């Protein structure tokens, strides 16, 4: 699945930034495999998230994203204190927080959170989860409207992505054009950032 399916099946308020990114993907660019955002959307729709994740998922399904964000923030703070920052439940809460940010149009925050989670999963020797978070970060990154913000995040994204391709895991066997597409966007962002700086 290449795109989020949640808003296709439930009435969820989707911001304009989600419907049309700052720099639309060209038709010739490869479509990435499922990101963590994709799988979270399916898990939310199927009611498969349990425990403290349940009320957050219910709020997302009902379109109460502000409430979902507040619940996630409170829950992740308590869980991290009790279980530690790398506990699977804490990491899933972090992924939900990033997904909520993406749904509400805070794509910079969604990208930053997803990159942080990808690094944590890599450090925990979970390359599959790390790559899924990298793909989520890439989805959010493409929707960042300000090239001066997107450019440094793009360098962080492609550096981590490159590392994952050199290690055992799905990133090393996936379509290499996906990473090349992300790298190819960096010069365009740099040019837009220079143009914006010159016109300021």
Please describe the topology of this protein.
Layout (H helix, E strand, L loop, with lengths): L5 H4 L6 H4 L16 H10 L7 H9 L3 H19 L4 H16 L3 H17 L3 H15 L5 H19 L10 H24 L1
Helix pairs in contact: 4-5, 5-6, 6-7, 7-8, 7-9, 8-9, 9-10
Helix-residue proportion: 55-70%
Discrete helix count: 10
Distance between the termini: 40 Å
Strands, total number:
0
* Net shape: globular
Instruction: List unreliable stretches of 5+ residues.
Output: 1-30
The computed structural class is mainly alpha
What can be said about the biggest beta sheet? Answer: none
The ordered string of helix (H) and strand (E) elements is HHHHHHHHHH
* Rg calculated over all Cα atoms: 17 Å
Mean pLDDT across every amino acid position: 85
Strand content: under 5%
If you had to describe this structure to a student in words, what would you say it looks like?
The protein is mostly helical. It has ten helices and no strands. It is globular and about 45 Å long.
């Amino acid at each position: 699945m290449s795109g989020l399916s949640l808003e296709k099946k439930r009435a969820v308020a989707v911001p304009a930034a989600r419907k049309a990114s700052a720099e639309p993907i060209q038709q010739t660019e490869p479509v990435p495999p499922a990101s963590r955002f994709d799988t979270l959307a399916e898990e939310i729709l199927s009611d498969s998230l349990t425990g403290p994740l349940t009320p957050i998922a219910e709020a997302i399904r009902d379109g109460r994203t502000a409430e979902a964000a507040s619940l996630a923030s409170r829950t992740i703070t308590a869980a991290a204190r009790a279980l530690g920052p790398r506990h699977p439940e804490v990491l899933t809460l972090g992924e939900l927080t990033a997904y909520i940010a993406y749904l509400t149009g805070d794509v910079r925050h969604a990208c930053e959170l997803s990159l942080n989670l990808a690094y944590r999963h890599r450090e925990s020797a979970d390359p599959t989860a790390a790559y899924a978070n990298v793909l989520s970060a890439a989805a959010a990154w493409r929707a960042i409207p300000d090239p001066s913000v997107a450019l440094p995040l793009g360098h962080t994204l492609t550096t981590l992505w490159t590392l994952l391709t050199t290690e055992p895991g799905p990133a090393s066997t996936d379509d290499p054009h996906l990473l090349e597409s992300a790298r190819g966007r960096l010069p365009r962002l740099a040019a837009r950032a220079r143009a914006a700086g010159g016109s300021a």
